[in-house]
């Protein structure tokens, strides 16, 4: 972690991502000049309709995709110029279960710890901490495919946190989870944030954003069309859902 606590945990400067087509006219601009600064310790909601640019932005932050132009800094570290260090500072829990379904929660975390070169003893200590933190003790050696939706999400969270990243990105972390398990996951996420973890959350459950996040940005057509505190979005007695729908409608009509 940077010694300078004034350095944002995430800073995005003029980010543009263009996916090349066969011809120039077929190029697709997925992200079109995004600027964003997220302080350490934030619980930040990133909203937008499907195809708005959320996933592309996340992919650029985590190194899955390369920015076309612009700069992304995680805790002051450039994600392109110093990719290896930047990658250790971020953990991603994706919407898709992109794991070996025949692996157990312990094996998933062990593999990820190995990816980051964590020594065996320290790795197992960390895995056991995460297994306990997410109440996975009874399920630690159960194959992923046999777990319930909520337990799968907890295992994915553990995998994302095994290398103790400074920044945690959650892409639809409660998709396919029932109401009771969703509330349990919210409690885990609130505790992580209260313990100092900076979290970026994307979700189509706007109640989830309203409950968890303190600051919000809305992306549409590759641009940030609104940003501010939760209170600013909810002024005049609006819910986050009402404010979000109004912002999207207005940006679609421009």
Contiguous uncertain segments of 5+ residues: none
Mean pLDDT over all positions: 93
Strand content: 15-25%
Major beta-sheet overview = 6 strands, mixed
The percent range for helix content is: 25-40%
Q: How many E-type strands?
A: 10
What radius of gyration results from the CA coordinates?
A: 18 Å
Report strand order across the widest sheet.
Answer: 6-7-8-3-9-10
Shape: globular
Secondary structure class reads: alpha/beta
The rounded distance between the terminal residues' Cα atoms is: 41 Å
Number of DSSP helices?
9
Succession of helices and strands: EEEHEEHEHHHEHEHEEHH
Description:
By secondary structure, this protein is α/β, with parallel strands linked by helices. The chain has a domain at 99-164. The chain has 9 helices and 10 strands. Strands 6-7-8-3-9-10 form a 6-stranded mixed β-sheet, with helices on both faces. Strands 2-1-4-5 form a 4-stranded antiparallel β-sheet. Strand 7 (167-171), helix 6 and strand 8 form a beta-alpha-beta unit. Helix 3 crosses helix 4 and helix 3 (105-115) packs parallel to helix 5. It is globular and about 55 Å long. 40% of the residues are buried. The model has no long low-confidence stretch (mean pLDDT 93).
